[in-house]
Structure formats: structure tokens, C-alpha cells
Write a sequence for this structure.
């Protein structure tokens, strides 16, 4: 199963957005997400609908943060992306006739739901400002003399 990297890519975009006074075009966001502008717009729309981004069409338009990084949690971004699957493994999802498989599926399902709840609870505690602070700390110890414009 392919790994879903939308959350990390979107967090990357949002942290960079905080550094810019002007809106970012869908083309800029797409290049940075390694996708096309249509997919970028669709992905960003969930964050706009949740109230975290604004968008403006036309010349000089684009995407911008609607709230400060302190007001956005990892859970907010995760939910705006449509609650993607957390795990790439688990029960088949089809009813099992075999009692062994039923026992396995029930135990896996319960354990994975418990792990998902713990993970999402932790996501609710971490803001994008926390991640930005981690970046600022890394920048101090790096050979970079200024913040990168964009890195993909």
C-alpha cells in the first residue's frame, strides 16, 4: 500500500506560507507538493473550508493563512484532509467465516482504534507554531544564513 504523504506535505506548505506576506499561487503550492495545480487546489480547499486558509482568484490571488500558526493543530490539518487512514495494515474489512480470523480481526480492530485515538489525541496537542519553533531551532544550528524561500 502506498504511503499517504498529504499531511506532511500540507504541513510543509503551511509553515512556508507563514513566512510570506503575499498569497501563494496554486502553481507554487503544486510544485512544492510535487503534484499538479488541480490537486493542490482540491487539497487546499479542505483547509479553506475549515477556516484556516483564504483563497482569491485572478491576478495577485492565491492562497494565504486565515489564522496564525498557533491556532492550527496537526489534528485540524488531518481532519481538513478528510481523516485519511492512519495505518497501512489491518483486517481485511470483509466478514470472516473462520472463527480464528474473526478473533484476529476483532483484536486488530480494537488495538488499532486505540492506537489511532492516542495518535489523534497527540495531534490535537501540537500546533503548527510548535513545528515552526522546531524549524527555527534547526535553522540556528544550520549553515543557512537566512530562511529558505521554498524547499520541495
Amino acid at each position: 500500500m502506498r504511503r499517504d504523504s498529504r499531511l506532511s506535505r500540507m504541513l510543509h506548505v503551511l509553515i512556508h506560507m507563514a513566512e510570506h506576506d503575499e498569497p501563494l499561487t496554486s502553481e507554487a503550492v503544486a510544485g512544492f507538493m510535487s503534484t499538479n495545480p488541480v490537486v493542490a487546489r482540491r487539497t487546499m480547499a479542505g483547509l479553506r473550508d475549515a477556516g484556516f486558509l483564504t483563497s482569491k482568484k485572478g491576478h495577485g490571488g492565491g492562497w494565504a493563512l486565515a489564522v496564525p500558526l498557533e491556532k492550527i493543530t496537526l489534528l485540524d490539518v488531518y481532519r481538513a484532509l478528510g481523516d485519511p487512514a492512519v495505518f497501512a495494515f489491518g483486517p481485511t474489512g470483509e466478514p470472516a467465516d473462520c472463527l480464528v480470523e474473526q478473533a484476529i480481526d476483532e483484536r486488530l480492530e480494537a488495538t488499532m482504534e486505540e492506537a489511532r485515538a492516542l495518535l489523534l489525541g497527540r495531534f490535537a496537542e501540537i500546533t503548527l507554531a510548535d513545528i515552526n519553533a522546531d524549524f527555527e531551532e534547526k535553522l540556528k544550528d544550520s549553515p543557512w544564513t537566512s530562511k529558505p524561500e521554498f524547499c520541495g
The two ends are 23 Å apart (CA to CA).
